[in-house]
Amino acid sequence: MVHDPDNATYQKTAQSKPVKYIRSYPVLKCDDAETVDGGPRTAHLHLSKANRIGTGNHSYVYRAPLTLPPPLSAHSPTGQVTVAAKLSYQRCTAHGLLRNEAKVYDSFPKHIQEEYCGYDIVPPCRFPVPATAVVPKFFGYYLPVNERGDVLDNHHDNCSEDNPCDVDWPSPILLMEECGNPVEPSKFTVDQRTECFSLILRLHYLEIIQGSFYVRNIMIQPGPLSVPPERRNYDTPSFRIIDFGRGERWDWNARREGRQTYFAIRNDRRADFVHRIGDEAYRARKELLIEDFGF
Question: What end-to-end distance do the CA atoms of the chain give, in Å?
Answer without folding.
Answer: 49
